[in-house]
Design a protein that fits this description.
Largest sheet of chain A: 8 strands, mixed
Bound molecules: zinc ion
Number of strands of chain B: 10
Oligomer: heterodimer
Strand order of the largest sheet of chain B: 3-5-6-7-8-9-10
Number of helices of chain A: 15
Mean pLDDT of chain A: 95
Number of domains of chain B: 1
CATH architecture of the largest domain in chain A: Alpha-Beta Complex
Distance between the termini of chain A: 49 Å
Radius of gyration of chain B: 19 Å
CATH class of the largest domain in chain A: Alpha Beta
Structural class of chain A: alpha/beta
CATH class of chain B: Alpha Beta
CATH topology of the largest domain in chain A: 2-enoyl-CoA Hydratase, Chain A, domain 1
Structural class of chain B: alpha/beta
Number of helices of chain B: 9
Largest interface: A-B, 64 and 74 residues
Number of domains of chain A: 2
Distance between the termini of chain B: 33 Å
Helix content of chain B: 25-40%
Shape of chain B: globular
Strand content of chain B: 15-25%
CATH architecture of chain B: Alpha-Beta Complex
Radius of gyration of chain A: 22 Å
Mean pLDDT of chain B: 92
Strand content of chain A: 15-25%
Low-confidence stretches of chain B: 1-18
Order of helices and strands of chain A: HHHHHEEEHHEHHEHEEHHHEHHE
Order of helices and strands of chain B: EEHHEEHEEHEHEHEHHEH
Low-confidence stretches of chain A: none
Shape of chain A: globular
């Protein structure tokens, strides 16, 4: 169960009552419901501030996984003339990754997104947004198209991670991610990355190495999703909440680390409370970044990309090591 | 550059208190093996040929012709997340240093292999499971940049449980950092070879491990993206025999060859010679 959905239950109920009252106000004459509505609206506002004002890392993980949160296709379908391209030309079409061509506010772009489902049936089809190697190989086709036709590449990250399964290993999950990273590293066209939901491990980074990284306020991004991280660290997936706290995976953390260049604020209570507005803000940020990056020569672009990641890390020369003696 | 064989003069690791000082039991054939014998045979079981894990310094000694000029020898990791679980992360790495005699999970430097100038990096599972954090990323970037400047091939011997959780998303970003360095080296037309040893998984296999021009797997190595524990928790079904073994990867077209440790240097020399040989005018 989603922690946020549980948490916001009283608010959801109150909002339903409000909607009902407003309808009745519109339909019936005579009784003036305005004072009652105003009172409840104030209460709802208060409740929103209480519930969402100070979210813990674990609650933010669940915000990133909220069942109503806008998904990659919600953003992508806002592009003009979007055409989806399918398949890796070798094995199969992986529905966990959607890719294609479109136009963003007059600029032709290539687009890749990790796609989760809205319900159980859709999630089974989309494999909960966990790509197989063929998904990454489809993404590689689109990356090459972007370079060949000098289009910016725009990506949307939303995955708990690359799928850990037998077929995925047999078909080279490591190689698929490694090759995607190498391709992005040398891609002679601007790359704009959006972290719109869950950014988990190499499976997220495989479409996430880029020139300008945008992150939605309540998205998360980490070395591994809290559950597998807890399994790796303490052999106990139930300690995911503790892992979430330690991993520093919020947009504030990522911005502070210098990994994310721009954080887009969400409405109080999350992107799903104003999907249209949120999607518009993200795409506008992408558009601004593209315009700036398109002015750079390809060599300059690659040098800047190299430097951006070259400086990420925390290390020093050992002077003395007291504990080791 | 003056020879700096400081990698030879490192603190000797403390012997593990619980283990027998003279004998080890081979996990493959269950035979008792004399430790001195094992060291003389490159840590390959004399009874059944099982490959024990090899420390990075022994691996450098096995592959390098003579001197090894270490790069970034004194680099130690910071604590970007201010991580604490059982104990603070800096205390963990400090203990790792005294336990392993290593400063980090990789040594990198320049040397010759079979008479060919190369840049060589070797990971060490004994230090924090060979995990990749800031220092691994930094040292690999330094090494590949040096190889690019000198136009000499790069060889990376991998042994790693993947990205280091305690350095979080900073560790994840080392995958990007190393990928950029590999790409840049490749753009200069400089050969890059990896040797995947036991184990090579996660963030290491999914970045430079599988980005090389030629990928050699050592006999018996476990190689894959996801660790078995994570796969088990996800699919909850029995894994096929030999799953994620070097031989399994060869069969599935993921690596160029599987090579026994005793033949590794010869094989590597051959590959490097073939990749660096000039076409006659
Ligand atoms: Zn044996």
């Amino acid at each position: 169960m989603n922690v946020i959905v549980e948490l916001e239950k009283p608010l959801t109920e109150l909002e339903a009552i409000l909607r009902d009252l407003k309808n009745r106000q519109r339909e019936t004459q005579g009784v003036d419901l305005t004072p009652k509505i105003r009172e409840l609206e104030e209460k709802a506002q208060q409740l929103r501030a209480e519930i969402f004002g100070n979210l813990t890392p674990w609650q933010r993980v669940h915000m990133a996984r909220h069942p109503k949160r806008p998904l990659a296709l919600d953003y992508i379908s806002r592009l003009d003339d979007f055409v989806e391209l399918h398949g890796d030309r070798t094995y199969r079409d992986d529905p966990s990754i959607v890719a294609g061509l479109g136009v963003l506010d007059g600029i032709p772009v290539c687009v890749i997104g990790e796609q989760k489902g809205r319900d159980t049936k859709e999630n089974l089809y989309r494999n909960f947004g966990m790509p197989h190697p063929e998904g990454y190989r489809k993404a590689q086709r689109i990356m090459r198209l972007a370079e060949k036709f000098h289009r910016p590449l725009v990506t949307f990250i939303d995955t708990p991670g690359a799928y850990p399964g037998i077929g995925a290993e047999e078909r080279g999950q490591s190689e698929a991610i490694a090759t995607s990273l190498k391709l992005l590293a040398g891609l002679r066209t601007p790359i704009v990355v959006n972290v719109t939901g869950e950014g988990g491990s190499g499976g997220a980074l495989a479409i996430g190495l880029g020139d300008h990284i945008v992150m939605l306020q309540h998205s998360i991004y980490s070395v591994a999703s809290p559950e597998p991280a807890a399994t790796i660290l303490w052999r106990d997936a139930t300690k995911a909440e503790e892992a979430a706290k330690r991993l520093r995976l919020t947009s504030d953390d990522l911005f502070e680390f210098g990994i994310v260049d721009e954080v887009i604020e969400e409405p109080l209570g999350g992107a799903q409370r104003d999907p249209e507005g949120t999607i518009g803000k993200v795409l506008a940020a992408d558009r601004r970044a593209i315009e700036r990056l398109m002015k750079l020569e390809a060599d300059t672009l690659l040098d800047r990309r190299y430097e951006k990641y070259r400086k990420l890390g925390s290390h020093s020369e050992l002077v003395h090591d007291r504990a080791a003696r | 550059m003056a020879p700096t064989p400081n990698w030879l003069r490192r603190r000797a690791p403390k012997p593990e208190a619980s283990s027998d000082p003279l004998w080890v039991v081979c996990p493959e054939c269950n035979e008792r093996v004399y430790k001195k014998d094992l060291a003389e045979r490159l840590f390959v079981c004399p009874k059944c040929g099982h490959h024990f894990r090899l420390g990075s310094l022994d691996r450098v000694a096995l592959l390098a012709d003579g001197d090894f000029h270490e790069i970034g020898a004194n680099l130690v990791t910071g604590d970007p997340l201010q991580w604490v679980d059982r104990i603070p992360y800096p205390q963990k790495t400090s203990q790792d240093r005294s336990k392993s005699g290593m400063l980090e999970s990789i040594v990198v430097g320049t040397c010759r292999i079979g008479g060919i100038d190369v840049g060589l990096g070797v990971m060490d599972f004994a230090f924090r499971g060979g995990t990749m954090g800031s220092v691994v990323g930094e040292k690999i970037a330094m090494l590949l940049e040096e190889c690019g400047r000198r136009k000499v091939p790069a060889v990376l011997v991998c042994a790693s449980g993947g990205a280091r959780m305690e350095e979080g998303v900073i560790a994840l970003m080392q995958m990007a950092k190393t990928s950029l360095a590999v790409q840049r080296l490749g753009a200069l037309g400089v050969p890059f070879v990896t040797v995947l040893t036991d184990p090579t998984t996660g963030g290491v296999s999914a970045s430079f491990g599988f980005q090389a021009d030629v990928i050699i797997a050592e006999t018996g190595a476990a190689i894959g993206f996801a660790g078995r524990r994570v796969i088990d928790q996800t699919i909850r079904q029995k894994l096929p025999d030999g799953f994620q073994s070097a031989e399994f990867l060869l069969e599935h077209g993921q690596v160029d060859m599987v090579v026994r440790r005793t033949e590794l240097k010869g094989c590597l020399t051959n590959v490097l010679r073939l990749l660096t040989m000039k076409v006659p005018a």
